[in-house]
Design brief:
single chain, 416 residues, alpha/beta, 22% strand
Protein backbone atom coordinates (compact mmCIF):
# COMPACT_ATOMS: atom_id res chain seq x y z
CA UNK A 1 0.00 0.00 0.00
CA UNK A 2 1.60 3.25 -1.14
CA UNK A 3 1.87 6.01 1.44
CA UNK A 4 1.21 9.64 0.49
CA UNK A 5 4.40 11.64 -0.05
CA UNK A 6 5.57 13.71 2.90
CA UNK A 7 5.02 16.87 0.85
CA UNK A 8 1.25 16.30 0.78
CA UNK A 9 -0.41 18.54 3.37
CA UNK A 10 -3.88 19.90 3.99
CA UNK A 11 -4.75 23.59 3.66
CA UNK A 12 -4.45 24.74 7.27
CA UNK A 13 -5.86 28.21 6.65
CA UNK A 14 -8.95 26.81 4.96
CA UNK A 15 -9.50 24.35 7.80
CA UNK A 16 -9.20 27.14 10.37
CA UNK A 17 -11.57 29.39 8.43
CA UNK A 18 -14.12 26.56 8.34
CA UNK A 19 -13.82 26.04 12.10
CA UNK A 20 -14.42 29.75 12.70
CA UNK A 21 -17.37 29.82 10.28
CA UNK A 22 -19.04 26.85 11.97
CA UNK A 23 -18.46 28.51 15.37
CA UNK A 24 -20.74 31.37 14.31
CA UNK A 25 -23.67 28.96 14.55
CA UNK A 26 -24.94 28.54 18.11
CA UNK A 27 -22.54 30.98 19.76
CA UNK A 28 -22.06 30.66 23.51
CA UNK A 29 -22.14 33.53 25.96
CA UNK A 30 -18.38 33.49 26.61
CA UNK A 31 -16.72 32.87 23.26
CA UNK A 32 -17.53 29.21 22.77
CA UNK A 33 -20.58 27.39 21.44
CA UNK A 34 -23.99 26.19 22.56
CA UNK A 35 -25.05 23.97 19.68
CA UNK A 36 -26.69 21.14 21.55
CA UNK A 37 -27.91 18.07 19.74
CA UNK A 38 -31.10 18.22 17.65
CA UNK A 39 -31.71 21.88 18.41
CA UNK A 40 -32.39 24.45 15.70
CA UNK A 41 -28.72 25.45 15.94
CA UNK A 42 -27.67 21.85 15.37
CA UNK A 43 -29.87 21.78 12.28
CA UNK A 44 -28.24 24.97 11.00
CA UNK A 45 -24.75 23.54 11.53
CA UNK A 46 -25.74 20.37 9.71
CA UNK A 47 -27.02 22.35 6.75
CA UNK A 48 -23.73 24.25 6.46
CA UNK A 49 -21.75 21.00 6.66
CA UNK A 50 -23.91 19.43 3.94
CA UNK A 51 -23.46 22.49 1.71
CA UNK A 52 -19.67 22.31 2.07
CA UNK A 53 -19.63 18.55 1.42
CA UNK A 54 -21.72 18.84 -1.73
CA UNK A 55 -19.51 21.67 -2.98
CA UNK A 56 -16.56 19.27 -2.54
CA UNK A 57 -18.25 16.66 -4.72
CA UNK A 58 -19.73 14.42 -2.02
CA UNK A 59 -23.16 12.84 -1.90
CA UNK A 60 -24.93 12.95 1.48
CA UNK A 61 -26.49 9.97 3.24
CA UNK A 62 -28.68 10.27 6.33
CA UNK A 63 -29.81 7.47 8.62
CA UNK A 64 -32.72 7.20 11.04
CA UNK A 65 -30.59 8.51 13.95
CA UNK A 66 -29.60 11.58 11.96
CA UNK A 67 -26.04 10.40 11.38
CA UNK A 68 -24.66 12.18 8.30
CA UNK A 69 -22.45 10.38 5.77
CA UNK A 70 -20.76 12.48 3.06
CA UNK A 71 -19.41 10.05 0.45
CA UNK A 72 -16.52 10.87 -1.89
CA UNK A 73 -16.33 8.18 -4.52
CA UNK A 74 -13.31 5.98 -5.05
CA UNK A 75 -12.25 4.32 -8.26
CA UNK A 76 -13.51 0.91 -7.11
CA UNK A 77 -17.26 1.01 -6.42
CA UNK A 78 -17.05 -2.44 -4.77
CA UNK A 79 -14.40 -1.41 -2.22
CA UNK A 80 -15.60 -0.74 1.32
CA UNK A 81 -15.31 2.93 2.24
CA UNK A 82 -12.85 4.41 4.72
CA UNK A 83 -14.87 6.47 7.21
CA UNK A 84 -13.62 9.54 9.02
CA UNK A 85 -15.37 11.99 11.31
CA UNK A 86 -16.63 12.96 14.74
CA UNK A 87 -19.53 15.19 15.89
CA UNK A 88 -20.87 18.72 15.43
CA UNK A 89 -23.00 18.93 18.60
CA UNK A 90 -21.55 20.74 21.63
CA UNK A 91 -21.96 21.02 25.36
CA UNK A 92 -24.27 23.81 26.64
CA UNK A 93 -21.10 25.75 27.42
CA UNK A 94 -18.86 24.05 24.89
CA UNK A 95 -15.84 25.02 22.86
CA UNK A 96 -15.33 25.54 19.15
CA UNK A 97 -13.19 22.45 18.55
CA UNK A 98 -14.46 19.44 20.54
CA UNK A 99 -15.82 17.13 17.86
CA UNK A 100 -15.99 19.83 15.19
CA UNK A 101 -12.27 19.54 14.39
CA UNK A 102 -12.75 15.86 13.57
CA UNK A 103 -15.68 16.49 11.21
CA UNK A 104 -14.16 19.45 9.39
CA UNK A 105 -10.73 17.78 9.37
CA UNK A 106 -12.42 14.94 7.48
CA UNK A 107 -13.96 17.40 5.02
CA UNK A 108 -10.53 18.98 4.54
CA UNK A 109 -9.24 15.57 3.37
CA UNK A 110 -11.76 15.64 0.51
CA UNK A 111 -10.98 19.25 -0.35
CA UNK A 112 -7.25 18.47 -0.42
CA UNK A 113 -7.76 15.44 -2.67
CA UNK A 114 -9.63 17.72 -5.06
CA UNK A 115 -6.87 20.34 -4.89
CA UNK A 116 -4.19 17.78 -5.71
CA UNK A 117 -6.32 15.81 -8.20
CA UNK A 118 -5.72 12.61 -6.24
CA UNK A 119 -8.13 9.67 -6.21
CA UNK A 120 -8.25 6.64 -3.94
CA UNK A 121 -9.45 3.14 -4.64
CA UNK A 122 -11.73 3.06 -1.60
CA UNK A 123 -14.44 5.70 -1.23
CA UNK A 124 -13.99 8.08 1.73
CA UNK A 125 -17.01 8.96 3.87
CA UNK A 126 -16.98 11.98 6.20
CA UNK A 127 -19.30 11.40 9.15
CA UNK A 128 -21.17 13.57 11.65
CA UNK A 129 -22.43 11.36 14.47
CA UNK A 130 -25.57 12.62 16.23
CA UNK A 131 -25.55 13.39 19.96
CA UNK A 132 -22.04 12.44 20.95
CA UNK A 133 -22.08 14.78 23.94
CA UNK A 134 -25.11 13.27 25.67
CA UNK A 135 -25.81 16.37 27.77
CA UNK A 136 -29.30 17.05 26.45
CA UNK A 137 -30.19 13.39 25.87
CA UNK A 138 -28.17 10.86 27.89
CA UNK A 139 -26.12 8.78 27.33
CA UNK A 140 -23.15 10.14 25.44
CA UNK A 141 -22.25 8.65 22.03
CA UNK A 142 -25.93 7.80 21.59
CA UNK A 143 -26.17 7.43 17.83
CA UNK A 144 -22.83 5.73 17.26
CA UNK A 145 -23.97 3.39 20.04
CA UNK A 146 -27.12 2.51 18.07
CA UNK A 147 -24.98 2.09 14.93
CA UNK A 148 -22.71 -0.35 16.76
CA UNK A 149 -25.63 -2.29 18.27
CA UNK A 150 -25.10 -1.11 21.84
CA UNK A 151 -28.57 0.48 22.09
CA UNK A 152 -31.83 -0.10 20.27
CA UNK A 153 -33.19 2.68 18.11
CA UNK A 154 -36.54 2.73 19.94
CA UNK A 155 -34.76 3.14 23.28
CA UNK A 156 -32.69 6.00 21.84
CA UNK A 157 -35.78 7.72 20.43
CA UNK A 158 -37.38 7.63 23.88
CA UNK A 159 -34.52 9.44 25.66
CA UNK A 160 -35.89 12.61 27.23
CA UNK A 161 -34.30 15.98 27.95
CA UNK A 162 -34.90 18.09 31.06
CA UNK A 163 -38.12 19.44 29.54
CA UNK A 164 -39.50 15.99 28.78
CA UNK A 165 -38.93 16.27 25.03
CA UNK A 166 -37.97 13.02 23.32
CA UNK A 167 -34.90 12.62 21.16
CA UNK A 168 -36.80 11.00 18.29
CA UNK A 169 -39.40 13.76 18.23
CA UNK A 170 -36.78 16.51 18.26
CA UNK A 171 -34.75 14.82 15.51
CA UNK A 172 -37.91 14.71 13.39
CA UNK A 173 -38.80 18.32 14.27
CA UNK A 174 -35.52 19.77 12.99
CA UNK A 175 -35.82 17.75 9.78
CA UNK A 176 -32.76 15.55 10.11
CA UNK A 177 -34.25 12.09 10.51
CA UNK A 178 -33.23 10.03 7.51
CA UNK A 179 -34.65 6.81 6.10
CA UNK A 180 -31.49 4.71 6.04
CA UNK A 181 -31.30 1.78 8.45
CA UNK A 182 -28.87 2.52 11.28
CA UNK A 183 -25.79 0.30 11.28
CA UNK A 184 -26.37 -1.14 7.81
CA UNK A 185 -23.18 0.44 6.47
CA UNK A 186 -20.00 -1.62 6.37
CA UNK A 187 -16.65 0.05 6.89
CA UNK A 188 -13.13 -0.73 5.72
CA UNK A 189 -11.83 1.40 8.63
CA UNK A 190 -12.75 4.44 10.74
CA UNK A 191 -10.51 7.31 11.89
CA UNK A 192 -11.38 10.12 14.29
CA UNK A 193 -9.41 13.32 14.93
CA UNK A 194 -10.09 15.02 18.27
CA UNK A 195 -8.57 17.51 20.65
CA UNK A 196 -6.94 15.73 23.58
CA UNK A 197 -9.23 17.20 26.27
CA UNK A 198 -6.31 16.68 28.65
CA UNK A 199 -2.98 18.38 29.39
CA UNK A 200 -0.41 15.72 28.44
CA UNK A 201 0.46 16.67 24.84
CA UNK A 202 0.84 20.37 25.58
CA UNK A 203 2.83 19.72 28.78
CA UNK A 204 5.27 17.45 26.93
CA UNK A 205 5.46 19.61 23.80
CA UNK A 206 4.11 16.87 21.52
CA UNK A 207 2.29 17.66 18.28
CA UNK A 208 0.31 14.44 17.98
CA UNK A 209 -1.28 11.86 20.24
CA UNK A 210 -1.41 8.36 18.75
CA UNK A 211 -4.40 6.92 20.60
CA UNK A 212 -3.86 3.25 21.35
CA UNK A 213 -6.64 2.70 23.89
CA UNK A 214 -9.78 4.27 25.26
CA UNK A 215 -10.33 4.12 28.98
CA UNK A 216 -13.11 1.97 30.30
CA UNK A 217 -15.57 3.68 32.60
CA UNK A 218 -17.56 2.67 35.67
CA UNK A 219 -20.17 4.85 37.36
CA UNK A 220 -21.42 3.62 40.74
CA UNK A 221 -24.04 5.66 42.56
CA UNK A 222 -23.60 5.40 46.32
CA UNK A 223 -26.41 6.25 48.74
CA UNK A 224 -25.50 6.58 52.42
CA UNK A 225 -28.34 6.93 54.92
CA UNK A 226 -27.90 8.21 58.46
CA UNK A 227 -30.08 10.50 60.55
CA UNK A 228 -30.79 14.20 60.20
CA UNK A 229 -30.24 16.07 63.46
CA UNK A 230 -29.31 19.50 64.79
CA UNK A 231 -25.66 20.41 64.30
CA UNK A 232 -25.54 22.35 67.56
CA UNK A 233 -27.42 20.17 70.01
CA UNK A 234 -26.51 16.64 68.91
CA UNK A 235 -23.54 15.24 70.91
CA UNK A 236 -20.69 13.95 68.80
CA UNK A 237 -21.02 10.30 69.95
CA UNK A 238 -24.72 10.29 69.01
CA UNK A 239 -24.41 11.55 65.44
CA UNK A 240 -25.14 9.46 62.35
CA UNK A 241 -23.51 11.78 59.86
CA UNK A 242 -23.98 10.68 56.24
CA UNK A 243 -21.86 13.60 55.04
CA UNK A 244 -18.89 12.53 57.14
CA UNK A 245 -19.19 8.97 55.85
CA UNK A 246 -19.26 10.27 52.29
CA UNK A 247 -16.07 12.23 52.93
CA UNK A 248 -14.34 9.09 54.19
CA UNK A 249 -15.54 7.10 51.18
CA UNK A 250 -14.23 9.79 48.83
CA UNK A 251 -10.84 9.54 50.54
CA UNK A 252 -11.03 5.81 49.84
CA UNK A 253 -11.87 6.46 46.17
CA UNK A 254 -8.75 8.59 45.84
CA UNK A 255 -6.59 5.94 47.49
CA UNK A 256 -7.98 3.23 45.21
CA UNK A 257 -7.27 5.25 42.06
CA UNK A 258 -3.73 6.10 43.19
CA UNK A 259 -3.03 2.43 43.84
CA UNK A 260 -3.41 1.78 40.10
CA UNK A 261 -1.33 4.72 38.87
CA UNK A 262 -0.49 6.08 36.39
CA UNK A 263 -3.42 5.32 34.10
CA UNK A 264 -6.33 4.76 36.49
CA UNK A 265 -8.40 7.69 37.77
CA UNK A 266 -11.26 8.10 40.21
CA UNK A 267 -13.42 10.83 41.71
CA UNK A 268 -17.01 11.83 42.43
CA UNK A 269 -18.35 14.74 40.40
CA UNK A 270 -22.04 14.35 41.19
CA UNK A 271 -22.76 14.89 44.90
CA UNK A 272 -26.06 15.59 46.69
CA UNK A 273 -26.34 16.00 50.46
CA UNK A 274 -29.72 16.09 52.22
CA UNK A 275 -31.26 18.25 53.51
CA UNK A 276 -28.30 20.50 52.63
CA UNK A 277 -29.06 22.95 55.41
CA UNK A 278 -26.41 24.86 57.36
CA UNK A 279 -27.55 23.65 60.79
CA UNK A 280 -28.65 20.10 60.00
CA UNK A 281 -26.32 17.12 60.09
CA UNK A 282 -26.80 15.34 56.74
CA UNK A 283 -29.13 12.36 56.97
CA UNK A 284 -28.45 11.19 53.44
CA UNK A 285 -25.68 11.57 50.87
CA UNK A 286 -25.95 10.47 47.25
CA UNK A 287 -22.89 10.59 45.00
CA UNK A 288 -21.58 8.93 41.86
CA UNK A 289 -18.07 7.49 41.81
CA UNK A 290 -16.40 7.64 38.39
CA UNK A 291 -13.60 5.12 37.94
CA UNK A 292 -11.67 4.84 34.66
CA UNK A 293 -8.83 2.65 33.41
CA UNK A 294 -7.67 1.14 30.12
CA UNK A 295 -7.69 -2.30 31.82
CA UNK A 296 -10.95 -4.07 32.60
CA UNK A 297 -9.47 -6.02 35.52
CA UNK A 298 -8.40 -2.75 37.15
CA UNK A 299 -11.91 -1.31 36.85
CA UNK A 300 -13.37 -4.46 38.37
CA UNK A 301 -10.86 -4.30 41.25
CA UNK A 302 -11.68 -0.65 41.91
CA UNK A 303 -15.42 -1.36 41.92
CA UNK A 304 -15.03 -4.23 44.37
CA UNK A 305 -12.77 -2.29 46.73
CA UNK A 306 -15.21 0.63 46.70
CA UNK A 307 -18.12 -1.57 47.71
CA UNK A 308 -16.21 -3.45 50.41
CA UNK A 309 -14.50 -0.36 51.79
CA UNK A 310 -17.59 1.84 51.80
CA UNK A 311 -19.64 -0.89 53.46
CA UNK A 312 -17.00 -1.20 56.20
CA UNK A 313 -16.87 2.57 56.78
CA UNK A 314 -20.64 2.84 57.02
CA UNK A 315 -21.01 -0.22 59.26
CA UNK A 316 -18.50 1.23 61.73
CA UNK A 317 -20.48 4.49 61.79
CA UNK A 318 -23.90 2.83 62.13
CA UNK A 319 -25.06 3.94 58.68
CA UNK A 320 -26.78 2.17 55.80
CA UNK A 321 -25.25 2.16 52.32
CA UNK A 322 -26.54 1.10 48.91
CA UNK A 323 -24.75 0.80 45.56
CA UNK A 324 -26.14 1.05 42.02
CA UNK A 325 -24.13 0.67 38.81
CA UNK A 326 -25.55 3.53 36.74
CA UNK A 327 -23.21 3.56 33.75
CA UNK A 328 -20.10 2.22 32.18
CA UNK A 329 -18.36 0.65 29.25
CA UNK A 330 -15.37 -1.63 28.84
CA UNK A 331 -11.92 -0.35 27.83
CA UNK A 332 -11.15 -0.09 24.13
CA UNK A 333 -8.04 -1.29 22.33
CA UNK A 334 -7.88 0.32 18.91
CA UNK A 335 -6.95 -1.62 15.79
CA UNK A 336 -3.20 -2.21 15.54
CA UNK A 337 -3.08 -1.59 11.79
CA UNK A 338 -4.97 1.70 12.00
CA UNK A 339 -2.88 2.83 14.97
CA UNK A 340 0.27 2.06 13.00
CA UNK A 341 -1.04 4.11 10.08
CA UNK A 342 -1.46 7.10 12.42
CA UNK A 343 1.95 6.68 14.03
CA UNK A 344 3.76 6.27 10.71
CA UNK A 345 1.93 9.29 9.29
CA UNK A 346 3.20 11.44 12.18
CA UNK A 347 6.73 10.15 11.67
CA UNK A 348 6.61 10.66 7.91
CA UNK A 349 5.47 14.25 8.36
CA UNK A 350 8.07 15.01 11.04
CA UNK A 351 5.60 15.69 13.85
CA UNK A 352 6.58 14.83 17.42
CA UNK A 353 4.21 12.26 18.88
CA UNK A 354 3.53 9.90 21.74
CA UNK A 355 1.14 7.06 22.49
CA UNK A 356 -1.94 8.22 24.35
CA UNK A 357 -4.86 6.68 26.19
CA UNK A 358 -8.09 8.60 25.71
CA UNK A 359 -9.57 9.53 29.06
CA UNK A 360 -12.90 10.52 27.50
CA UNK A 361 -15.42 8.51 25.54
CA UNK A 362 -15.67 9.11 21.78
CA UNK A 363 -17.74 7.76 18.89
CA UNK A 364 -14.63 5.84 17.82
CA UNK A 365 -14.94 3.76 21.00
CA UNK A 366 -18.25 2.29 19.79
CA UNK A 367 -17.32 2.10 16.10
CA UNK A 368 -14.23 0.10 17.10
CA UNK A 369 -16.66 -2.75 17.84
CA UNK A 370 -17.77 -3.00 14.21
CA UNK A 371 -14.76 -1.79 12.18
CA UNK A 372 -10.98 -1.34 12.50
CA UNK A 373 -10.62 2.04 14.20
CA UNK A 374 -8.02 4.51 15.47
CA UNK A 375 -7.86 8.08 16.78
CA UNK A 376 -5.54 11.04 16.26
CA UNK A 377 -5.29 13.72 18.94
CA UNK A 378 -3.86 17.23 18.99
CA UNK A 379 -3.10 19.34 22.07
CA UNK A 380 -5.49 21.83 23.64
CA UNK A 381 -4.49 24.74 25.87
CA UNK A 382 -4.22 23.68 29.54
CA UNK A 383 -6.11 20.49 28.67
CA UNK A 384 -9.34 22.48 28.97
CA UNK A 385 -12.46 21.16 27.25
CA UNK A 386 -16.24 21.15 27.77
CA UNK A 387 -15.71 24.83 28.47
CA UNK A 388 -16.19 27.94 26.35
CA UNK A 389 -12.54 28.84 26.98
CA UNK A 390 -11.41 25.67 25.15
CA UNK A 391 -8.61 26.66 22.76
CA UNK A 392 -6.21 25.17 20.23
CA UNK A 393 -3.77 26.80 17.82
CA UNK A 394 -4.07 26.77 14.01
CA UNK A 395 -0.75 24.90 13.95
CA UNK A 396 -2.09 22.14 16.20
CA UNK A 397 -5.21 21.84 14.06
CA UNK A 398 -3.12 21.64 10.88
CA UNK A 399 -0.78 18.99 12.31
CA UNK A 400 -3.67 16.81 13.45
CA UNK A 401 -5.44 17.13 10.10
CA UNK A 402 -2.21 16.40 8.21
CA UNK A 403 -1.76 13.14 10.11
CA UNK A 404 -5.44 12.30 9.65
CA UNK A 405 -5.11 12.96 5.89
CA UNK A 406 -2.12 10.66 5.54
CA UNK A 407 -3.60 7.83 7.64
CA UNK A 408 -6.97 7.95 5.85
CA UNK A 409 -5.60 8.33 2.33
CA UNK A 410 -3.02 5.57 2.81
CA UNK A 411 -5.75 3.26 4.10
CA UNK A 412 -8.02 4.23 1.17
CA UNK A 413 -5.13 3.46 -1.25
CA UNK A 414 -3.99 6.17 -3.66
CA UNK A 415 -4.52 5.31 -7.31
CA UNK A 416 -1.34 6.02 -9.23
Amino acid sequence: MAAPGENLRINGERLWDSLMEMAKIGPGVAGGNNRQTVTDEDGEGRALFQKWCEEAGCSMGLDQMGNMFARFEGTDPQALPVYVGSHLDTQPTGGKYDGVLGVLGGLEIIRTLNDLDIRTRHPIVVTNWTNEEGTRFAPAMLSSGVFAGMHTQDWAYDREDSEGKKFGDELQRIGWRGDEEVGARKMHAFFELHIEQGPILEAEGKDIGVVTHGQGLSWTQVTITGKESHTGSTPMPMRRNAGLAMARVLELVDEIAWSHKPDAVGAAGHIDVYPNSRNVIPGKAVFTVDFRSPQLEVIEDMEQRLRLGAAKICAEMGLAVEFEKVGGFDPVEFDAGCVTAVREAAERLGYSHRNLISGAGHDACWINRVAPTAMVMCPCVDGLSHNEAEEISPEWARAGADVLFHAVVETAEIVE
